[in-house]
Amino acid sequence: RTCRCFGNFAGYNCGECRFGWTGPSCEQRKAPVVRKDIHSLSPAELQEFLDVLDRAKTTVHAEYVIATQHWLGLLGPNGTEPQFNNISIYDFFVWQHYYSVRDTLLGPGRPFKAIDFSHKGPAFITWHRYHLLSLERELQKLTGNENFAVPYWNFATGRTECDVCTDSLLGGGDPRDPSRISPRSRFARWGVVCDRYVLLVEILFSKNLCETLKVDTLLTFNVLSMDIKSLLNALEGYDKPDGELDSSVSNLHNLVHLFLNGTSALSHSAANDPIFLVLHAFTDAIFEEWMRRSSENASLPDEMAPIGHNRHYNMVPFFPPVTNEEIYITSEQLGYSYAVELEGNKHAVNAYILGIIYLKKCKFYHYVLTHINPYHVLKNTPRLSIVLFRSTPSDFHSCLFRVVVT
Question: Which residues form the EGF-like domain (predicted)?
Fold first, then answer.
């Protein structure tokens, strides 16, 4: 159970203000914090961002713990031992994303695999917006700086490499083992929140010419979702370049996750990588630009969307409950804005999405997901399940790369 807050109060105990509000009675509009390009941060701002991520990774969350058993067994075998674990602030953020995509447990031994609360539907946008907002607020508390804002990474510049994958930013590659984060990066020490679910991911490409999606094309779509051509298909990345739904295709947001590979390549583990924050901040910036240009609020569906994705549905697993509709408003109403100009910016609007340039000769690509023996993988690669890793292929023109992840 939770409190039902009046006015602009929020939180499980109504002790905070709703996003976008401030003051003792939560009646004052909060001046929006400004999310900047990570490459435009001052040295002090960048240091603050990297330091607070490290602190969030090691600071135990003061308000939330994680249940380790199904609710039927939550009090333990004798009914007096609650089955909970403490969790750090950043790992709680990771766990929320993991929980939203994991199998839904209907009861002991009864997993339901057909639900994804945060992807492949209109709530992809609202869910990730709220997810990032929640962590941003926690980071503001840690820094003691209410103007702190998560930066974004403009991955739509057409560059031929990951320009945030450096040791001075979010971690370069290990020269001795390209599948791992450089030991010189502070993030090499980070463990991951992950179930012991092991997949062999092979991303196979054909030899025909890749069509490319441009951000300016995406911003012309006049519906969010529930249509064969929509912003949702284009922004999440299940589309062809003209926005038409094609689940065999990965573009924009999805393509960047695949480009980073490793921990970032699978939904259940992606949030472990700190690049997840800056990637989704830019994805949200594109949505914000679309919302600014479009007045079609009715495109958020009232019904017939996947479970958890309709307008009035609560977003799982956020607590206290919050609906998609509450977050389907402009960023300034939620207390933040972007220092980015997509319209008229040649590089941001017209450039190809990061990674596409590598894939010029490949038209369509798809996953082949194969279960393999978890014991064999973990036995032979004991560090695999406890470290962040990325694996950018050395030769994208070969149109084939492979990585084992846990």
Answer: 3-14
